[in-house]
Amino acid sequence: IQRTETGEFVMVAELNNAKEFVAKKRQVVSGKSSDGRTEILSGLKESDAVIVVGFQELNEGQIVSGPWVKG
């Protein structure tokens, strides 16, 4: 979870029209935190692929890849 003066957000991998995964910023509202985990109260769907490694260096719209990408 990244925090700015305008709120909290995470980066998710979303499939674009060219069938590539791109980074998208998703506004979220966080809840309780414990043991390095934080609940998300709103802003995500269960099926969203949240980017948890390297997200600090991502720009919105940037193509992302990794071992989780199937294709």
What do these coordinates show?
- The chain is mainly beta.
- It contains no helices and 5 strands.
- It has strands at 2-4, 7-15, 21-34, 37-42, 49-50.
- Strands 1, 2, 3, 4 and 5 form a 5-stranded antiparallel beta sheet that branches.
- A hairpin with a 2-residue loop joins strand 3 (21-34) and strand 4 (37-42).
- The protein is globular, with a radius of gyration of 13 Å.
- It starts with a strand and ends in a 21-residue tail after the last strand.
- The mean pLDDT is 89.
Tell me about the largest β-sheet.
5 strands, antiparallel
CA radius of gyration: 13 Å
User: Would you report the number of β strands?
Assistant: 5
Contiguous helical run count = 0
The end-to-end distance, rounded to whole angstroms, is 28 Å
Report the structural category.
Answer: mainly beta
Percent range of helical residues: under 10%
Instruction: List SSEs in N-to-C order.
Output: EEEEE
Shape by Cα distribution: globular
**Uncertain segments:** none
- How confident overall, as mean pLDDT? 89
Strand content: over 45%
